[in-house]
């Protein structure tokens, strides 16, 4: 039967142009049976090639689907997105110490103290000396024990003028790292200052303007042989012997402000005869009845390298002082305001000092004679500044300028913040 079915197709008409192909279901059954394959039975419901109208007629009405409207919209199927494994977030413990220190350097003082209470590691990093190099506490109120805790962190530059300072409570801290300090016009006891300066031996710049001191404080200051700038303007409470100790031990002193102190004639004579020769800028004004010609002569003899000298309000000085001032070959800035025994006509003698650049003579020269004096001394600037800048830590408005002798204080305390001893608790967790 297999051979008979195959022979019915002539060999000569396989590829002919006029090939008439006829195929019936009976022949397909015979062909598959001859090949040993049982043919699949056709489903009577098969609608693969059945016209749509015929399908509708064959389907019962209850099973007919509603005809769909022709949709010409082209829809682009989105490729399925493979889910990527989620990377775990970085832990704070994985951040290196150097990066954390860099982050901490942008914090204010209160925030840094809060970070120190997070864990032991943050407490260790927050106490790093690089973060506490410069500290600004201008105009704040510091409770007892606060300043001592701050200084133990290794502060080098401390700026706190007009600050109310409680007892520092420095215990077992050894030598402090303080080098540049401004305590001008602070509210602080002499015992607190004594406690602070007893631990200081590296001071280079110090401002104590307007404070009440003691012989013990002056003795502690005298231990800082590297002192370069010292401002004691308006201070009181120490003896001439204590002042002598400072002047003899601080041999590197170049800027010294000793104006308007509560001095006797003995204080003035002791200072004038013991000024170190290293001084180049000196403010020795405000001694109306104590500074005489003899003290000025001793001062000029001991300090021949003076470039700035302020002798304002020394009413005992006479025109004879010009002969002494001419012995200072490097003198550039001179203040003689309110030295009333010096008449305006004698000021023309300063034209002979070629090194002189500025001259302050407020109260001596009237407005009419000032213009004539400026024309007679064209190379000298007259009455350009009301206040002396000798050994002053901050120039201009201290509320905006946070510099101290040209060093900008980085770590500051916000105006709304306050410090209490409880802010320095050590953490107990890990």
UniProtKB/TrEMBL annotation:
Keywords: Acetylation, Cytoplasm, Kinase, Leucine-rich repeat, Nucleus, Phosphoprotein, Repeat, Transferase, Ubl conjugation, Ubl conjugation pathway
Primary localization class, coarse: cytoplasm
One MF annotation (Gene Ontology) recorded for this entry: enzyme-substrate adaptor activity
Matches recorded under Pfam families: F-box-like (PF12937), LRR_6 (PF13516)
InterPro entries: F-box-like_dom_sf, F-box_dom, Leu-rich_rpt, Leu-rich_rpt_Cys-con_subtyp, LRR_dom_sf
Keyword Ion transport applies: no
Pathway: Protein modification; protein ubiquitination
Annotated localization: Cytoplasm; Nucleus
GO biological process, one term: protein K63-linked ubiquitination
Family matches, as PROSITE patterns: FBOX
SMART domains: FBOX (SM00256), LRR_CC (SM00367)
Keyword Translocase: no
Cellular component GO terms held in the UniProt record: cytoplasm; nucleus; SCF ubiquitin ligase complex
Ranges for domain F-box: 89-135
Function as written in the Swiss-Prot or TrEMBL entry: Substrate recognition component of a SCF (SKP1-CUL1-F-box protein) E3 ubiquitin-protein ligase complex which mediates the ubiquitination and subsequent proteasomal degradation of target proteins involved in cell cycle progression, signal transduction and transcription. Specifically recognizes phosphorylated CDKN1B/p27kip and is involved in regulation of G1/S transition. Degradation of CDKN1B/p27kip also requires CKS1. Recognizes target proteins ORC1, CDT1, RBL2, KMT2A/MLL1, CDK9, RAG2, NBN, FOXO1, UBP43, YTHDF2, and probably MYC, TOB1 and TAL1. Degradation of TAL1 also requires STUB1.
Name of this protein: S-phase kinase-associated protein 2
UniProt organism field: Pelobates cultripes
């Amino acid at each position: 039967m297999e051979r008979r079915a195959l022979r019915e197709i002539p060999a000569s008409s396989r590829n002919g142009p006029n090939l008439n192909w006829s195929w019936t279901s009976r022949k397909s059954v015979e062909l598959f049976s001859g090949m040993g394959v049982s043919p699949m039975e056709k489903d009577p419901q098969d609608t693969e090639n059945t016209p749509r109208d015929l399908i509708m007629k064959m389907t019962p009405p209850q099973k007919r689907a509603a005809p769909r409207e022709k949709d010409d919209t082209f829809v682009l199927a989105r490729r399925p997105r493979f889910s990527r494994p989620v990377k775990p977030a970085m832990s704070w413990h994985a951040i290196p110490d150097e990066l954390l220190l860099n982050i901490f350097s942008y914090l204010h003082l209160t925030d840094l103290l809060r970070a120190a209470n997070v864990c032991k590691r943050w407490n260790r990093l927050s106490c790093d000396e690089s973060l506490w190099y410069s500290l600004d506490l201008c105009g704040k109120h510091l409770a007892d024990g606060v300043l001592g805790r701050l200084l133990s962190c290794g502060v080098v530059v401390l700026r706190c003028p007009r600050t109310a300072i409680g007892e520092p409570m420095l215990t077992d801290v050894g030598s402090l790292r303080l080098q540049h300090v401004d305590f001008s016009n602070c509210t602080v006891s002499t015992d607190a200052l004594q406690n602070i300066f007893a631990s200081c031996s590296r001071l280079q710049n110090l401002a104590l303007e307007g404070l009440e001191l003691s012989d013990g404080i002056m003795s502690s200051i005298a231990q800082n042989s590297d002192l370069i700038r010292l401002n004691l303007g308006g201070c009181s409470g120490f003896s001439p012997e204590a002042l002598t100790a400072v002047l003899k031990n601080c041999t590197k002193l170049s800027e010294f402000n000793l104006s308007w102190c509560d001095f006797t004639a003995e204080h003035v004579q002791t200072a004038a005869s013991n000024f170190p020769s290293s001084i180049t800028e000196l403010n020795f004004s405000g001694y109306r009845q104590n500074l005489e010609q003899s003290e000025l002569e001793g001062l000029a003899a001991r300090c021949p390298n003076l470039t700035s000298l302020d002798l304002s309000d020394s009413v005992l000085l006479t025109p004879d002082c010009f002969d002494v001032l001419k012995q200072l070959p490097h003198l550039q800035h001179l203040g003689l305001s309110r030295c009333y025994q010096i008449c305006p006509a004698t000021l023309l003698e300063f034209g002979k000092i070629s090194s002189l650049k500025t001259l302050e003579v407020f109260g001596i020269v009237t407005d009419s004679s000032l213009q004539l004096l400026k024309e007679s001394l064209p190379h000298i600037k007259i009455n350009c500044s009301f206040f002396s800048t000798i050994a002053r830590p901050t120039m201009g408005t201290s509320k905006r300028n946070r510099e101290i002798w040209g060093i900008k204080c980085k770590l500051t305390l916000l105006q709304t913040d306050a410090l209490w001893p409880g802010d320095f608790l050590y953490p107990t967790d890990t």
